[in-house]
């Protein structure tokens, strides 16, 4: 059974590398990953959402 997780990232620009590392360690359990952030033509906003479809390993 899948879990759907929605993460709100408030400081996207300064946390992106840490978040990427954390998600990569669970990469085999994540089937879908979607990142959403607002952007204008000249810059990206620092807030965003990550939506995950997570299938935890069976123990």
Plain-language structure description:
The protein has one helix and three strands; from the N terminus they run βαββ. It has 59 residues and is an alpha+beta fold. The chain has one domain. Strands 1-3-2 form a three-stranded antiparallel beta sheet, covered by helices on one side. The longest helix is centred in the first third of the chain and has 14 residues, at 12-25. The chain is elongated and about 45 Å long. The model has no long low-confidence stretch (mean pLDDT 87).
Radius of gyration over all CA atoms, rounded: 13 Å
Figure out the total of helices.
1
Helix fraction bin: 10-25%
Shape: elongated
Number of domains: 1
Structural category is: alpha+beta
- The poorly predicted ranges are none
> What is the multimeric organization of the chains shown?
single chain
- The SSE string, one letter per element, is EHEE
Termini separation (Å)? Answer: 14 Å
Q: Outline the biggest β-sheet.
A: 3 strands, antiparallel
Q: Widest sheet: strand order?
A: 1-3-2
Portion in strands: over 45%
Give the overall pLDDT as a whole number.
Answer: 87
Number of strands: 3
